[in-house]
Design a protein that fits this description.
- By secondary structure, the protein is mainly alpha-helical.
- The chain starts with a helix and ends with a helix.
- The chain contains 10 helices and no strands.
- The protein has helices spanning 5-25, 30-39, 44-66, 74-94, 100-119, 135-154, 159-169, 175-201, 209-229, 232-252.
- Helix 6 (135-154) runs antiparallel to helix 7.
- The mean pLDDT is 83.
- The protein is globular.
């Protein structure tokens, strides 16, 4: 379906706002963007595929900013990509066949638990204390990345938050570093893989994408810029608030 100028403007503003807060908190772009696509008239399957394509460009906006001051390391990036992408493919292949209501309620509870866990761990993610990058710890970490990749391929809201917290909890990253990996690798590579799989399985609202893509790049760049400039404690608070809001939305809306 084709949107008029007013509808395209709504898409553009929605994408800026959603991607700004997602870049600042380490995930959650679907909290705002995905429901708007359905509200404006797309079916669940088409909204999911369209959202996945647009969310790739959150990663583009993040890359443009991280080119100036990046904490990304090649080995870490390769581990996240190699572990997560197979999970993304599996999750995206199965999502359109899954019972939506039950899956979203379970996901809501899990997402709220992320925020609550972070709140009761005041020092979590504040300092950079790398760990589990070899041996059994690395194998467990890669299994966790595969599971998070599966969630990324199969859900619309909050999968980036799971990756952010896993990188902090298991691998000892601080919030700034974890969010950098989430935005660039999850936002670009994981979401890109999911978009391809979903695009092959369903329809994409191509004429909606220019406004969504432009807004995603702008919002992703601005949110990443603020995240880099702010301290880990403030970013931690945004993460906690975003996870709880997404969880409540999945449970009750």
């Amino acid at each position: 379906m084709t949107l008029d100028f007013a509808g395209q403007t709504v898409l553009f503003i929605t994408a800026i706002v959603a991607n700004f807060f997602s870049a600042l908190s380490g995930g959650g772009v679907g909290l705002i963007q995905f429901p708007i696509l359905i509200f404006l008239g797309l079916s669940f399957a088409m909204a999911l595929a369209t959202h996945k394509v647009a969310s790739v460009f959150l990663g583009v906006g993040a890359i443009l900013r991280h080119m100036k001051s990046s904490h990304l390391e090649r080995r870490t990036s390769l581990i996240i990509l190699a572990s997560g992408i197979p999970g993304v493919i599996l999750g995206a292949s199965l999502i359109l066949k899954a019972p939506e209501k039950e899956a979203l309620m379970l996901l809501g509870l899990l997402t709220i638990s992320l925020g609550v866990y972070s709140i009761f761990k005041p020092q979590l993610g504040v300092n950079y204390t790398p760990k589990n990058w070899s041996g059994r710890g690395l194998k467990t970490g890669m299994a966790g990345l595969f599971l998070v990749g599966f969630l990324n391929g199969s859900i619309t809201s909050g999968s980036g938050l799971f990756l952010t917290l896993w990188l902090i909890h298991h691998f000892g990253l601080d919030y700034k570093r974890a969010i950098a990996y989430t935005l660039v690798l999850c936002g670009l590579a994981w979401n890109g893989t999911g978009a391809i799989v979903l695009g092959l399985a369903g329809d994409i609202a191509w004429d909606w994408l220019p406004a969504l893509i432009t807004g995603s790049i702008v919002g992703g760049y601005l949110g990443t810029h603020m995240a880099i400039r702010q301290g880990n404690k403030l970013i931690k608070r945004f993460f906690e608030a975003t996870t709880i809001l997404i969880g409540l939305k999945l449970l009750f809306l």
